[in-house]
Design goal:
single chain, about 80 residues, mainly alpha, about 0% strand
Length: about 80
């Protein structure tokens, strides 16, 4: 792998991380505002689902950023 591809991967991962933080924070804030859980057990299940959402969003955005960064670097540098 070339140096340009590594730089592209790092830049893509960083941008993916920032994007994931923004998106997940916005969605999680809205989800918490509409939480209709009545018992502690329901709240715990709901928080677990929110944590799973957070993890999936971060994995997808960061991995997608890495792939896009490598692709862009290869396209620009050759």
């Amino acid at each position: 792998m070339s140096v340009a591809a590594l730089i592209g991967a790092a830049a893509g991962a960083a941008l993916g991380y920032l994007n994931a933080r923004f998106v997940s924070a916005t969605v999680i804030r809205a989800l918490e505002a509409t939480d209709r859980s009545q018992t502690e057990e329901e709240k715990a299940v709901y928080r677990g689902k929110i944590r799973l959402f957070w993890l999936i969003v971060h994995l997808v955005f960061i991995a997608g950023g890495v792939v896009a960064g490598i692709g862009l670097a290869r396209w620009l540098v050759g």
